[in-house]
Amino acid sequence: MISRIDLRGDALPEGPALRDLLPRAEFDVQAALEKVRPICEDVHHRGDAALIDFAERFDGVRLDQVRVPAAALTRALEELDPAVRAALEESIRRARTVHREQRRSTHTTQVVPGGSVTEKWVPVERVGLYAPGGRSVYPSSVVMNVVPAQEAGVESIALASPAQAEFNGLPHPTILAACALLGVDEVYAAGGATAVAMFAYGTESCPPANMVTGPGNIWVAAAKRYFTGKIGIDAEAGPTEIAVLADDTADPVHVASDLISQAEHDPLAAAVLVTDSVELADAVEKELEPQVAATRHVDDRIVPALSGKQSAIVLVDGIDEGLRVVDAYGAEHLEIQTADAAAVADRVRNAGAIFIGPWAPVSLGDYAAGSNHVLPTGGCACHSSGLSVQSFLRGIHIVDYTKDALAEVAHHVVTLAEAEDLPAHGAAIKARFVGDEQMSRGWKVPESK
């Protein structure tokens, strides 16, 4: 069901050579870009009419309007299963607890007497958030996108999720209920690249946004790439992935269940076990069969995911080598199930989120750890972070200098300007001291006319 890659015995290669030995799903965003381009431009030129046509084409339902009526949000919350509501409320509470601590405060640095630089943090004005539809319903993604945007202070928040024929063209009612719980009343029945284009260009019913965030399929990722530079994005999210670094202290039942938990997302989902224990590898492989047989989504998701080229059991000589492998892989979700797991986790450099020990599975982070589950995929954890309050903030430097503070450093500014052959930069300094006799530091000020 799952392949093996044996990296024992020989010295592990460095950098890209090591990454090339590891399993990874094929996810060609560039190829998809050419297919989403005409879709995005159709939304640009025809607005809501294009969104309605694409919903009929892709989602099998003809919409009367793209924006979800307020009454539908209210009704979805009223009809929500009380147990699901309680779980969502707890998920929201924990996410707020964590994300509230991420807020940045204005800070002023006194560089010299009379000269200061202040960094203030300003939220983007408007964001468009995306909650996927399709194989599953993801109210948890509503929580993970909305909470950090709200805690950052974003004033205008809109959310899009695909139209569902089963629900008369509305997004899934649990998505709508989650929006209602969070106080988001601007919701659109739009999916995939059309939703990203709606937020990027704006339509008759939806004003344009400054930024788009949220997970999605390859068409969402391609549309984000298409609009990079016009709007801000969080990341080009690819198929979900889990890596487990484990030794002989790990419970194979836990490890197998965690690999399956991510495999049930998508046939391209990646499940990778990195271990120095052949006994654990054998036990996990043996454990996969009965656990897979006992669950749902077997043939259409789990088996293709576990048997695909993106999933494998990777054998290494020791935990040190295992750390090199998981750092090269840069997993979206990384579980550490080893002796002294916290100390091992502290040595990890590249991961979207790290889950320590047997009682912190990825599923906890998906819903109720308080952490964010919108995380970098495809190795992007080597250079990018998951969604947070910081994602929605912009740092602005405010420079405040007195005349004396400028005079003290003016000769250095002029020297550097001339070294870069930008004399007008230096002249902008000199012009402020025309006729000032105290400025005699080796450069001449321009004569006033």
How is this structure best described in words?
With 449 residues, the protein is an alpha/beta fold. Helices cover 43% and strands 17% of the residues. The strands form three sheets. It has a six-stranded parallel β-sheet with strand order 1-11-10-9-12-13, with helices on both faces. A five-stranded parallel β-sheet has the order 6-5-4-7-8, with helices on both faces. Helix 6 links the parallel strand 4 (126-130) and strand 5. The termini are far apart.
Strand order of the largest sheet: 1-11-10-9-12-13
Bin the strand percentage: 15-25%
Largest sheet: 6 strands, parallel
Q: Give the overall pLDDT as a whole number.
A: 95
Helix content: 40-55%
What separation lies between the terminal Cα atoms? 84 Å
> What is the radius of gyration computed over CA atoms, rounded to a whole number of angstroms?
26 Å
Low-confidence stretches: none
The number of helical runs is 17
Structural class of the secondary elements? alpha/beta
Strand tally is 14
Envelope shape: globular
Tags for this entry?
449 residues, alpha/beta, six-stranded parallel sheet, 17 helices, 14 strands, 43% helix, globular
Topology:
Layout: E1 3-6, H1 15-19, H2 29-46, H3 48-59, H4 70-78, H5 82-100, E2 107-112, E3 115-123, E4 126-130, H6 139-152, E5 156-161, H7 173-182, E6 187-189, H8 192-201, E7 211-213, H9 218-227, E8 232-233, E9 241-246, H10 252-263, E10 270-275, H11 278-293, H12 298-307, E11 312-315, H13 319-329, E12 331-337, H14 341-346, E13 351-356, H15 362-367, E14 393-401, H16 403-419, H17 423-430
Parallel strand pairs: 1-11, 4-5, 4-7, 5-6, 7-8, 9-10, 9-12, 10-11, 12-13
Antiparallel strand pairs: 2-3, 3-14
